[in-house]
Amino acid sequence: MSTDTFPALVIDRVDGAQSASLRRISDADLPAGNVLVRVEASTFNYKDGLLLSGAIPLIQSFPMVPGIDLAGIVEFSDHPDWEPGDRVIANGWGLGERHWGGYAGKCRLNGDWLVACPARFSSAQAMAIGTAGYTAMLCVMALERQGVRPEDGEVLVTGASGGVGSVAISLLARRGYTVVASTGRPSEEQYLNKLGAASIVDRARFSEKGAPLQPERWTGAVDTVGSHTLANVCATLKYGGTVAATGIAQGAELPATMYPLALRGITICGIDSVYAPLACRKEAWRSLEAELDLDLLAAMTATVPLADVVELAPAILAGQIRGRVVVEIPS
Questions:
Q1: Is residue 125 in some structural domain?
Q2: Which of 8, 25, 209, 305 has a CA-to-CA distance to 32 between 20 and 30 Å?
């Protein structure tokens, strides 16, 4: 076992107070697992902001290395599917909550949680996609499984300038859908148009309590916000429409009625990216490799050093982070 050290962002809790610090650890400090990955990049998601802030008690044990995503190279494997040198990705599976995650130079984990990094993507590009982009593809897949077609009408994306929203817009537009982007930041209109949004709607239209049934407009929707926003999206779906629901940025409650379901036959598809089956993960990553515009991905991506992620937590929880954030993992 290597005695070399590497950086890790570690969250501790002392006397009920949570704090994070950058320190150097070794292989011996890592938790159990049958694959050891040298992490080349991670990413910063809304959930990472929750983990770092402690706003919701998600972390199951301390100390904890956060980071729900990672991409890197296998250094050691006792798993039949992986061998040293393989390029791999991990998304979810309780990383950063129940098991040490990607904000460290190495990660030891269960090989069942890994997928092969598509040849088209570098580790940094894979993390520019990350859980947000992979979730966006799961949403698109869900809409299409429910029969939502480009010719049927407009598709709404809420939380449009965030990570899931940004990738969802680009994927839907590439597949020929007319995408309407909901955002509270009018200054992002040019950015959203570049991603493929045909028009913009103010998120205030959805953020307060509305009538249980409203004029029909959307054939489908991707909702990353939850709460009143999701309720209003449901109330404005066309007959037989579908919403792929995947976020709680506004809140985890759903103050809605049965009317849109019982009278318009709408479908609410819950999208889970954390424990999604391996077959779904592989399909999503294959589709991302085939379809994602890397120039648009670069346009929606910023890169930060590991030392800076703690101070980003309040910004992402306040909806102030545009697109995707790749986290550089130093050696």
A1: no
A2: 305
